[in-house]
């Protein structure tokens, strides 16, 4: 898979940032705006992806992302939900989230229960932590995209696809 670079503002409306409880832990997921999802390149299918993420001009962290209709919740609109694998001290409403999608884990699938969904999320995160430590993925963390000030990457899909 060639990698894709996406950058957009994280909205303060609750529909864009939500928390999934997992035992005593919280997974914070952010949704990209519909305009970003609607303009994804055609070769990006639904499923679970992984890569790197940066909030504003901060540090770069591992991330896992779901692109699709979230069958468990029976969504009717395609979404792009990103979980940055990092514990933030505060929310990042109103800040820019930039991601580099570097790999694909699995297709989107339905779950019979919330516990089954949570177990899959946990498994995906553990797999991503291992995959992103591989040299071919570590080098992508150093892309020029993450060194560019966020004001010049706002609301973009790069690799020839721009909003």
From TrEMBL:
Signal peptide: none annotated. The keyword ATP-binding applies. GO terms for cellular component: mitochondrion. Gene3D superfamilies: Riboflavin kinase-like (2.40.30.30). Its EC number is 2.7.1.26. Keywords: ATP-binding, Flavoprotein, FMN, Nucleotide-binding, Transferase. Residues 25-133 form the Riboflavin kinase domain. The keyword Transferase applies. It is an enzyme of class 2 (transferase). This is riboflavin kinase.
């Amino acid at each position: 898979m060639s990698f894709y670079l996406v950058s957009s503002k994280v909205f303060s409306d609750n529909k864009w940032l939500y928390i999934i409880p997992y035992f005593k832990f919280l997974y914070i997921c952010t949704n990209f705006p519909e305009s970003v999802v609607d303009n994804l390149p055609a070769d990006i299918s639904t499923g679970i992806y992984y890569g790197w993420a940066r909030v504003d001009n901060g540090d770069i962290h591992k991330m896992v992302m779901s692109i699709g209709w979230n069958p468990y919740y029976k969504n009717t609109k395609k979404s792009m939900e990103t979980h940055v694998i990092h514990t933030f001290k505060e929310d990042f409403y109103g800040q820019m989230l930039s991601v580099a999608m570097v790999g694909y884990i699995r297709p989107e699938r339905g779950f019979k229960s919330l516990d089954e969904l949570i177990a899959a999320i946990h498994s995906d995160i553990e797999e991503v932590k291992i995959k992103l430590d591989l040299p071919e993925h570590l080098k992508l963390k150093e892309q020029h995209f993450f060194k560019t000030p966020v004001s010049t990457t706002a609301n973009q899909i790069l690799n020839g696809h721009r909003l």
